[in-house]
Design brief:
Keywords: Membrane, Transmembrane, Transmembrane helix. The chain is mainly alpha-helical. The chain has four helices and no strands. Helix 1 packs across helix 4 and helix 2 packs antiparallel against helix 3.
Length: about 90
Amino acid sequence: MLGVVASVLYLGTLVWALSVDGAVHVKVFWLAVTGVFVVERVVTLRKRGWRYMLPAALMYELVVDYFLQACHGKAYLDALLRRRKSW
C-alpha cells in the first residue's frame, strides 16, 4: 500500500511541477544518486555481456513497476469500495 501511495505522490508532484512551473528542475545531487544506482546495475551484469547491461542501464522495469502499482491501487480501491471480484 505504501508503495502505491509513494508512486502516486511522486507522479503527482511531477505533474504539478509541470503545470505550475512549466518545467521540472533537475537537481544535480539526485541526478548523481540515480547515476550511481544505474552504474551499480550495469556493473553487476557485466559478466553476462552487453545484451543484459543495456536494458539494465535503461531501467525499463520502471514502466513495469508503475503498471504493477496501478494494478495494486485498483485492487485496494476495489476492496475499499467492496466491489465484486471479476476477471
